[in-house]
Amino acid sequence: MRRWAALAAAALMAVALPLASAAQAVGAGSTAAPASVDSSTVGTVSVRTATTGGLSDSGQQAIADLRTCLASNDVLNVYYLVDSSRSLAVADGGGPGSDPDMQRAAILANSLEQLGAIGNGTTVNWAAGFFSTDFSEAIGWQTWAAGGAGQLSSAIKAKTPSGYTNWPAALAGAQSQLAAQQQTHGGCQMLVWLTDGLIDIKAPDGQGPEDRDALNALCGAQLDPSGASASGYGIFNAMRQSGVVVIGALLATTDAAGMAGLVMQPLVEGTGTVNGRTVSCGEQPMPTGYAHGAFVEASSPDALAQVFLQLSAQVGGGYPQPFDADGSFWVDQGVARFRIVLSGDWTLTPPSGSGLAAASASSGQSWLKTTDQNGATVIDVTTDAASAHGKWKLDAGSTKSLFLYSDLGIVFDAKNAISIGADGQASAQLKAQVQHTDGTPADLTAFTTRTFTARLVGSDGTVTALPDAQIDPATGSISIPIPTTVSTATVTVEASIDPLQTVHNTLAPITTQQRVATVLPAEFPRVSSALPVALSTLEGRDGTATGEITVAGPTAGGDGTVCIASPPTITSDAGSRAGDTWQWKYENCVTVAQGSTAVIPISVTNGEAADSRVRASAPITFTSAAGDALTQEVPIVFTSTRPVNAAAVGLLALALLLLGILLPLVLLWIVNWATTRLEVDNRTQRAAFRVRIGPDGVEFVDAPASDSALSERFGYRGAAGSGRSIDDPELGGIHTRIPWFPLLAPQYVITPAPGTLLVVARAGSKLAAGGASQADGSMRFAQLPLGAFWALTVSRAELLRTRRGDAVVGTAVIYHRFDASVPTQYRDRLDDIAADPRLTDAIDRLRTAQTPTGSAIPGPAAPGEAPPVDPLAGVPPRTSASGAGSPPPRPGGSSSAGSPPPLPGSPPSLPGAAPARPSHPPARPGAAPPRPSASPRSDPPPRGR
Amino acid sequence: MTARQPVSMVRGSRVVASAMPVSVGLGAVLVSLGIAVYIAVAATAPVSFFGVPLPLVISEQWWLSLIGYLLTPFTVIACYGWDATLQRNGLRRNRNFVLRPAYRRALVWAVAAGIVLGAWHAINLSVPLSELWGLS
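The joint structure predicted for all components is written out below.
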């Protein structure tokens, strides 16, 4: 069997043949065209509900790409990326999952079995990995051998489904695996990606923002309008660029899972329709040379096996052909064989006059070969003989597929080469032959249509048609003249017959490539390295890709010179990095002695890291001893990666975020601490007065009657007190309080002196200027301007001595900022206190708070019990500020008990009571209160107390 | 009076809280948001982060993320403190000082938005930093 024929049966075919089972869901009969697709709408997303047995144009092209590659390459690297998420076993919300019986194990294992059976010198390397919440390697790379399929099956069965469906992690892992394998064992590449539902990276179940962002990133475009904009072209584009044929298989057992197909198709194939919107992923239109992808979808494991079976038949060179309504189909000259995939009973009737007896499921015949696997039947019939030509008929159920094979291939002459003359002109006539699988030349005259084309494929994907290429239909001989302008060290020539049609049928196109080296004249040195020149991996922004270009000296005419004329040009880079970001280092020129070799080290760096397979072209000038020069483009290839230590990056990001939050908060706390002070400047004054508070108002017991005398009671505090705390002998302590959380406002706290209670404190004349009482008896202020602050305290004993309605004796402490422009400033401050309507209520509340029951205030003295003592007893009655008379004094009072001591430097308390202040006090002289030293009125008073 | 309140405005006879902190804070959020959008649109390369390809800033444009990081949350939180201090001190120095609680509320929202933006800038910044420090 010819090598290409076996290869044609490889790839995706291997993904199928033995898988044949069931096939109940696949589109009825015909596979010539994509199966019908029913559309319905679930929510806002159109969902396909039918299983698609056919392929889109991109899917067909993917098969062609693989067949073309396998026709000219003897290595196939295939990676199985298998979904192991929980939904395979258990559906969301309960019930069985999409494949609870793990039929996928047999499906994929059988496909591997077929791949491994390619034979004819083709090496099949395979590996497998699972993905759910994360990607995990399951089976490392190995060359296929008997038992490999069982190993894959066992691994799948041993993997308990769990976790989510993390597509990005899965694809990144598979891409990495394929890239690593390609470095050591280059060849055709295929990724079989099996999943059972839409991307769902993490909890909670269902689509989240991270899923939508990831979809767009995978696509390289706005696949999901609600997701973040993508950057770059996405991982699928990178794989297409690297030549990886991606087979995306969706096992969609529910409508919800079927939604995945809407996004999988554009991801895998590059274009698709989502909600009536055409979506393109990656570079579109797709550059020439990129590998296409194929998306397939099935609604059950059996249907999935059927889909794989159809796919593999096409990769194997089969072309889907519809049955007639009665199950008949034509086989004519040019059709070498056909394959039928079906389920259930069947009867196959050869053409009348063929002399062949009908075959059936129960009655086999020698002219056919049947294979039963997992409930599906595969029928292979060779139709080389003329007797087999005619109208066949199949009687079977609705699930049946027909594939026709030409078993033709194009084989290039291994001796093809392109000679470059001393004048730099290329000269070559490449030879190729269309052959049958047994190697005999093919007669194409039987085909009614056999369009032959040839082209040059550049390393950057550019295509140059070769219109002078010819084929002899009678002998299948191909002649391809090469243009004289070819200047690259190697060229890739592609020959194709497309379409290929017989009278009744269309057959699969035939395409083959050959890489041909150009040969310089003997007087010139030449590149002896394998082409393209492979550099090491460029890892990260600090990495360097290094390599060597080995050149061989002339074989005649003396020594030669090899020079890299200019920095290499990047011809392909999925990272889309600008050309000036690449920094090349190399030795410009080397002299190569005749018959010897030399090495040109070359390296490249780029400050911008990206995951990409990079291709470049270096213009190298070869000079002979006679001085003649020829320039060739030498291809260079290397892999670029952007390694990221996710843990380090995550920790660093967390540290930066915490720093970004905590540092300003710390600074803010420091600002709070530094700016929150008790602003006592050299104009701040203080006074304390004995007061009697009764139902009729406030009476200042010891306040002088005259304004001048009153001013003497206000002493200066001095600016030295501009700190964070003040110890006031009557009031207690005043200090600032800075909360640990700096966004909370700092506070000013007044803590009453021991034995006293704080009745009222106000930072102004307004009631709203009052502080908030605390359970411990202190009072807190958001603002505490001491220029207009006063407080009233009473002793606990006095409070307990009295009862509601009694006059209470206390102390009024006043802080004041001297203002020379207000003559009545001191009297005004007393009026502020006298005018406060809530003092009595405040005292009552405080008294209630001090007695647990609120009624523990001593009542009238019992017989024989000493009555309560009025601390101001004996003090002459005074007129209250309200003008009403004071309550009669209690007997037995002391005249001096509880009287506050004078402040240092403050004038002594007057023994007389302050007279009731008229509502309109007489104008005062306007002079400032007496100061320790004379100074202009507008100047701050001197410091002192 | 105005000489003692350099950052406040006088309206008639009243001194009102300055709008400068809230203006600067909201401006910082807007500029930071603009930087984030610009990076997402024009200066990113995909980086696989715990399996998720994130469009993070390219190494050459790391300084954009640094500016964004300094604007949010640094500057915004600082503006919050600035406003709080100004209003507190204004009231302390002038009993007739007019507070503007709306400024503080606006800045609280700005701080919240700034923390979110800052997280994104921090992630962007952490990749080139990790590369710079040899952690990747």
